[in-house]
Amino acid sequence: MGASLRTWSARGMPDSNSSPIFYRCSLAWREIMEWHSLIIKNIRRNLRRYLGYLLASTVAILCFCMFIIFAANPEVAHGKAPSSARVLFTISQGIIAIFALFFIFYFHAALIRLRNKEFGLLLTLGVTRRQLGLMIFYESLFIGVLALVAGIGLGILASIPFTQAVSALLELPRSISFNLQPAALLTTLLLFGTIFLLDALLISLRVSLRTPRMLLLGARERQRPPRASWWKVLFGLLSLAAAYSMATMFSNLLIFNALPIIALTIIGTYFLFSQIFVMLLNALRRRSLAGIRLLTVSRLAYRMSDYSRMITTVTTLSAIVLVGMASVFGVQQSMAASMLKLTPFSLEYISGPGQTFPLSAQQVRATLSKHHFTLQEELATPVLTGLLTHQAKELPVTVLSLSQYRHLRGSLLQLYPAWGDNLDQASSLANGQAYFYAPPYVSDLSSVVDGKYITLKTDKLLQSLTIETGHAMVFNMDLPDLSSFLVVINDTTYAQMDKVVAPNLHKQIYSFAVQEWRQMRPAVDELRSSLTGQQQAQFSEIYTPYNANMQTFSLTLFATFFVSLLFFLAVGISLYFKLFTQQEEDRRQFRALERVGIQQKEGQSVLTLELLLLFFIPVLIAIIHAIFAMIDLAHQLELQGWDATPIWGAFAIVCACYLGCIALFFLAAHINYYRQLKAAVAPG
């Protein structure tokens, strides 16, 4: 590099008196080859730096390619897969594209800043700014092309098992065949090609506008002692307190609060690391610390100040992964438990006087027996339909006798012993008394019935009742012409009403509980095949909605896994990148420390503690953020009448897996980093 790049093309080029076209082509070709050689050497020399960036870019393209190939599949587009699958993968494409845009622009710029000294040296040796800009531009494009080729190639290969996995999750009778649409590849190529091109242009322009002095001395600026500001500390604490309060106290306004909560959490996290932790560490430094302890605390104070932006990014990405995976996994588990509470019977149909319903209890039993399903419970419950009048408002209700309600409750408790708290126990009732039971998704009973007195209207009969309120769900919620709101009266009153009420208000509910309800698709299909469209509405079963929801959540979990993988890679690359940038300074510091008597074992303990905090403090803060997000989610589920308990088990599993992955990455990074540092510090 002792000679200027401007003179490279002057050696060995053809005589200028020869053909002008031949002369110009030869000159251009030689310049291209010189640039090609220089770019290849630079990439080889900086391969370790660029490896993480190249890997994450490739994985982002791979995931985007898989999703878009599946969404563009003609069989998916024409309805062989549910429309929700296509919408879900389209949304995933958008998330990946936004991630790629942020990741490529942010991390590539950070990688280029590491080479400022190299670029400043090239300018000092005679390379023009234009040549330097072109070199960086071609280099960036070359890396982008590598990522594109690898990502698209691997994406095509991975799309085959990906399509088969989605078909299995959807439980399709015939798998979706793999189909590679050129439009999908073209979209991937254009999107990521544009991102890489814009990134190369911006990076090359930014570097070419800097002077050699800025590039050479930029990294040597004197490091200021870490100091914390009281008002920034207070602002950070208030931001986090406001975010946590909004998440836990105003769950019903999540649509309006989501963006403010996220913004306040990120701001509070930044000030937590840059101000609050620095203030605490400075307070420790002022205590009577000496030796290794003082060194450790001092280095941590500087690290927290220097790394605050990176640690905030890592914390935010980690919180997104934890909340995303735990939410989808937890809601899937919660849905499975809540579906039973909203649809307590495996099969149920409604019949009334004068109605000819093609199914009979005997036919249902025969069909279940034919497919080897175990019938646990069979009930036939007479009910009346009526209107509850309260404060000039009318609400359709289902009227039950006390004995029938107790019989239903007892049967459900035999099926689901843990449901004692979900089905209110009705004691004896006198004339003029009743129980009013709302379904579990109605959390605020006062919004339905405010007071203890109602009027029950059945046909032309009006009765004033004193009520006690509670929650109970004894019939499937999706039965038409049957309200999920129950009014339970004593048997005498019910018998009197039964005699005078018009026949069309009498209903008979046939309920069946099947042990293997998660696998009863053959029986459901056979029973539904004997019903017309209108009759289908009078038939309720748990398998179809449960299976549809499970498919949706399984697909969502599947897609979330790939998106979370990208975010985890970004977390790992952020941490490793910051370690790499600090390596040269650590070498100088540990050389100086060895001269004053610090042993290698002591230096290793300082470094180990520092890396432990660097890796795990962001994750622990992210877990705290995620806990408040999960509290908000639990409130949302409870407002819908869902069981929120399973989300905490799912959250614990996700946190354990994430901590395990971070621990493995920490061990690998610690061993590798300390080995390199030890080799650099070693004498000679």
UniProtKB/TrEMBL annotation:
Classification via InterPro entries: ABC-4_Integral_Memb_Prot, ABC3_permease_C, ABC_permease_BceB-typ
Limits of the ABC3 transporter permease C-terminal domain: 95-208
Pfam families recorded: FtsX
A GO cellular-component term linked to this record: plasma membrane
Record key words, sorted: Cell membrane, Membrane, Transmembrane, Transmembrane helix
UniProt-annotated location(s): Cell membrane
Keyword DNA-binding: no
Transmembrane spans: 50-71, 91-114, 135-163, 183-209, 230-255, 261-284, 310-331, 553-577, 611-635, 647-668
Location, primary (coarse class): membrane
UniProt GO BP: transmembrane transport
Membrane topology of the entry: Multi-pass membrane protein
Protein name, UniProt field: ABC transporter permease
